[in-house]
Amino acid sequence: MVSRCLAALVDVIVVAAIGLAVQFAYGGLRLLVAGPPFRMPDPSAWLTGVLGWAVAVLYLSVSWASTGGTLGDWLLGLRVTGRAGRLLGAPRALLRAVLCVAFPVGLLWIPFSRRHASVQDVVMASAVRYHRF
Questions:
Q1: Which residue, among 101, 100, 103, has the nearest Cα to 128 in the 3D structure?
Q2: Number of H helices, E strands in the chain
Q3: Is 38 exposed, middle or buried (0-12, 13-18, 19+ CB in 10 A)?
């Protein structure tokens, strides 16, 4: 459970960095089009939440479907697969990402599961294994 929570923390930092990079890019584009001074965009709280949620889901689903792991997974030696050991397909990876972002406390089920599965793993028939990338 500790390694999975640490991997999730790393992924939260990556998603925040992506969001910050997007804001800088938007501010730079606005500077090129409208001219000085450079200003960071100030989106509303609901827009920031929706975009942050979308970036997180996209980041997780693309990572799990393509390589089986996010940056946090890679750093902690974890890999997300189906129960048979193959990579999740795009639809399953997307649904698992939505569940992970919408219900992160599902990780708390890990200590009570015989196969150390989170709620998301149970629902999506996935498994998280130790792996060397």
A1: 100
A2: 5, 2
A3: exposed
